[in-house]
Amino acid sequence: MITGQHIPDRDDDIDGYEKIDRYNPDLIHSLSDHYRDVLKLIGEHPDREGLVKTPERMAKAMLYLTHGYDLNAEEILTSAMFKEEYSQMVVVKDIEVYSMCEHHMLPFFGKAHIAYIPNGYVVGLSKIPRIVDVFSRRLQVQERLTNEIRDCIQKTLNPVGVGVVIECRHLCMSMRGVQKQNSVTTTSAFTGEFLKEKTRTEFLNLISSRLS
Ligand SMILES: Nc1nc2c(ncn2[C@@H]2O[C@H](COP(=O)(O)OP(=O)(O)OP(=O)(O)O)[C@@H](O)[C@H]2O)c(=O)[nH]1
Ligand SMILES: [Zn+2]
Question: Does residue 101 have an active-site annotation?
């Protein structure tokens, strides 16, 4: 039985998710208590030396792995938009993705490749990987992650088009379940010019080429 349970204040709303005070010590304490119970329920001894600090570590790790709920992708993008007459495709590829599937809360990880064609404004390059983190550091499915990144860039930057390709390995498919060690899932989402075959092909060629 957990005592002194901390129920987070829910007073704000980002992207439809309720904002919590993620690093509130009471919340960490309450989550640690739950993880201590989890350890007992899987047959472990939470008081043995190696596990004494584990519930707190798990609580802090889980709060970190879901910190994307606290971030506002539109704010991040609008904080670094610059008027620029560049009208060719901008591609940021091989962006590391670490997320957790919402079905098993096991990691999926891999790479995102993102492109847009500016429409009077470019965005600070670092902001593109930052918005990948906003949406990936949540409980996700790969398809929704892909669409959320596309929609956020389209809505905020209003480019001529956006292309997003994500390739990931899902631990719920390799270390358990169907146990396929080498399968990779690819998802994609496009708007505007990227719906045309010529532009999409240019993007796909650019992300498959390697710098020597
Ligand atoms: N579409 C999609 N499915 C996912 C993703 N991550 C995990 N899944 C799947 O979610 C499904 C959940 O299916 P269930 O049958 O309810 O769960 P399960 O019994 O654990 O399924 P198995 O993994 O087949 O053992 C599984 O097929 C997972 O492979 C994702 O990002 N996108
Ligand atoms: Zn899963």
Answer: yes
Please check whether residue 161 lies inside any domain of the structure: yes
Are both 112 and 180 inside the same structural domain?
yes
Closest C-alpha residue for ligand 1 atom 4: 141
- At 71-111, the pLDDT tens digits run 999 999 999 999 999 999 999 999 999 999 999 999 999 99
How much distance in Å is there from the Cα of 139 to the middle of ligand 2? 10
Q: Are residues 99 and 139 in the same domain?
A: yes
Contact 172, 106 (CB under 8 A): yes
Structural domain range at position 101:
80-208
In-domain check, residue 4: no
CA of 5 to the centre of ligand 1 (A): 32
Query: How many domains does the chain fold into?
Result: 2
pTM of the model: 0.92
Alpha helices in 79-196 (DSSP H): 127-136, 142-157, 171-174
Q: Which residues have C-beta within 8 Å of that of residue 59, sequence separation ≥ 6?
A: 28, 29, 31, 32, 34, 35
Q: How far lies 200's CA from each of 148, 154, 204, in Å?
A: 19, 16, 6
Q: What is the pLDDT of residue 3?
A: 45
Are the C-beta atoms of 63 and 31 separated by less than 8 Å?
yes
